[in-house]
Design brief:
Layout lengths: L5 E3 L2 H9 L4 E3 L6 E5 L3 H11 L8 E3 L3 H5 L10 H7 L4 E6 L6 H4 L4 E5 L4 H8 L5 E2 L14 H8 L5 E3 L11 E6 L2 E6 L5 H8 L3 E2 L23 E3 L2 H7 L5 E5 L8 E4 L6 H16 L5 E4 L8 H11 L6
The structure holds threonylcarbamoyladenylate and magnesium ion.
Threonylcarbamoyladenylate binds next to strand 5 and strand 6.
Length: about 325
């Protein structure tokens, strides 16, 4: 244990650590990030090390205004501008051609850098108070479930980082949607907290790129990800309860209550946005039980349901029991 990790609301304290080249857990409206000075390779190295993250998986850079982004990229494609103006700050990440101001380590050597402006008052105040942008992946050990509360970070990175800036529970609860251009087309590389419907309303039709496991140089979407330690199985809950009868089962359901040893209902009212917001906390809660396995069901596919289903599918891509 290198640090006695503190949780607090002191933005100045977080800024001091960051200015000194240290790393800090920070709130955003999607998930909590593990932040360091994006222009300082030592700070960026600390992030990779704390998360045990492979260097081929690049980091998102956070700032507080579109003109700030322009300082670090060669240009902003015209088709992306309306999206950026509408959803920054917000759960949108854009891939843009970088200048050499952004270290190779941040982009894993890729020519584009990912930028995002988080829509969270604490994060924005922190970012405005500094004269450098913050590289910040989700603040979880590599491959595990993203944190949506300060306590989630403490549970995993306690002792490893000095400070967690507490901004309450994340309002959206699922990572940002990542977009970029390929030729004239807008491509969505990761489904996330900004729905496809919202994007297409502003930008017209977009292409959704199916992520592959074998291409880590693509926007790092490994098949097994966001995963609990316990095996998780996705399907029809009644059928699976039957199939695994006799095992200790935890059920993660959308709105119905099932008869199981442990159960977490994402949204009793059947509200997809609420379900997205509670998804990762629910996965964590069930992962901490004595169950042998977690059984889960998909959500309806519209709005954020699509991104939630993507996360559930990845969480379930671990070996079956
Ligand atoms: O909502 C979010 O995006 C959160 C908060 C903290 O901002 N961050 C987050 O970061 O989810 P992370 O590192 O867990 O996921 C970022 C994803 C990775 O899968 C990475 O491969 C991809 O973004 N990415 C980052 N930079 C990239 C780049 N230059 N080119 C392609 N993909 C990139
Ligand atoms: Mg992550």
């Amino acid at each position: 244990m290198e640090f006695k990790t503190q949780i607090g609301k002191d933005i100045n304290h977080a800024a001091e650590i960051l200015q000194g080249g240290g790393i800090v857990g920070i709130p955003t409206e999607t998930v909590y990030g593990l932040a360091g000075n994006a222009l300082n390779e030592d700070a960026v190295l600390k992030i990779f090390k704390a998360k045990n993250r492979p260097f081929f998986d690049p980091l998102i850079v956070h700032t507080h205004a579109i003109p700030e982004i322009s300082r670090y990229v060669k240009h902003v494609p015209e088709r992306l501008l309306p999206l950026m103006e509408r959803f920054m700050p917000g759960p949108l990440t854009v891939l843009l051609p970088r200048t050499t101001a952004i270290p190779d380590l941040v982009t894993s050597g890729l020519e584009r850098v990912a930028f995002r402006i988080p829509n969270h008052p604490v994060a924005l105040e922190l970012l405005r108070s500094m004269d450098f942008p913050l590289a910040a992946p989700s603040a979880n050990p590599f491959g595990y479930i993203s944190p949506t509360r300060a306590q989630h970070i403490l549970a995993q990175l306690g002792g490893i980082i000095p400070y967690i800036l507490d901004g309450g529970e994340c309002g959206i609860g699922i990572e940002s949607t990542i977009v970029g251009m390929e030729g004239d087309a807008i491509v969505v590389y990761r489904l996330g907290g900004l729905s496809i419907e919202q994007i297409e309303q502003i930008a017209g039709e977009v292409t959704i790129q199916d992520h592959s496991t074998s291409d880590p140089a693509g926007p790092g979407m490994l098949e097994s990800h966001y995963a609990p330690r316990k095996p998780m199985i996705l399907g029809d809950i009644d059928t699976l309860l039957d199939e695994y009868r006799g095992r200790k089962i935890a059920v993660l359901s959308f709105c119905k209550k099932y008869d199981a040893d442990w159960s977490y209902i994402l949204s009793p009212e059947g509200d997809i946005d609420v379900a997205a917001k509670r998804l990762f906390a629910g996965m964590r809660e069930l992962d901490a039980t004595d169950a042998d396995l977690i059984i889960a069901e998909s959500l309806p596919d519209g709005g954020l349901g699509r991104a939630v289903n993507d996360r559930l599918r990845r969480a379930a891509a671990t070996p079956k029991p």
